[in-house]
Amino acid sequence: MDNEITLSFIAKSENEALARMVMSSFISAIDPTIEELSEFKTVISEAVTNAIVHGYEEDGVGKIEIHAERSGREIVVSIVDYGRGIQDVTQAREPLYTTKPEQERSGMGFTIMESFSDDVDIYSIPDRGTTVTITKKFVPIQESCRIV
Questions:
Q1: Residue 106 domain boundaries
Q2: Exposed e or buried b per residue across 67-100, where buried means at least 16 C-beta atoms within 10 angstroms of its C-beta
Q3: Residue 3 a catalytic site member
Q4: Which of 27, 78, 87, 118 is deepest in the core (most CB within 10 A)?
Q5: How far is it, in rounded angstroms, from Cα 122 to Cα 63?
Q6: What residues have CB less than 8 Å from 50, skipping those under 6 apart?
Q7: Using CA atoms, how far apart are residues 80 and 91, in angstroms rounded to an integer?
C-alpha cells in the first residue's frame, strides 16, 4: 500500500461535494487522465449520495465514513453508513430500480458505479447499514502521451 485516507462526515447533501473533492485530491498523485478523474468523482458522488438519501433519509445526523487505499495505480474505496441498510441488494443493483420514485430518483446509482469501476461490492444489513467497496485500476501513464 502506497497511501491511505479515512474521512468521516455528517450525512448532509452538501458533504457529497466535500467527499468528491477529497477523494479527487487523494488520487492526484497517480496523475489520472481527465476521463478517469471524472469517472472516479462520479462513482464517489453516487455512493455518497446513496448513503445520504437511502441510508439516512437525508436526516443530516448520521455519519458516513470513507476509507481509501492506494497501491500503485489501483484504488480501493469503502463508503460506509450505519443507516437503514438495503433489504435486497440484488434488486437494488438492478438498473432503474429505486425505492424513491416520488423523488424522481433514476435508480441508476449502482449501475453507474459498476460502469466506471473494476469491481463494486455491496454488503448491507437491514437497520444496521451498508458498505460499498469500489475498486478502480487506473491505466498506466504512457510517457509518449505525457505533456511536459
A1: 3-145
A2: bbbbeebebbbbbbbbbbbbeeeeebbeeebbee
A3: no
A4: 27
A5: 18
A6: 109, 110, 130, 132
A7: 20
5 neighbors 67 (Cβ within 8 angstroms): yes
Residue 7 CA to residue 14 CA, distance in Å, equals 15
Q: How many domains does the chain have?
A: 1
Residue 35 designated active-site: no
Active site residue 46: yes
**Cell digits for 144?**
509518449
pLDDT in tens, 11-63: 999 999 999 999 999 999 999 999 999 999 999 999 999 999 999 988 889 99
Q: Which of 16, 36, 39, 46 is catalytic?
A: 46
Q: Which three cell numbers stand for residue 73?
A: 495505480
Give me the catalytic one of 50, 58, 114, 128: 50
CATH number at residue 81: 3.30.565.10
> Do the Cβ atoms of 40 and 99 come closer than 8 Å?
no
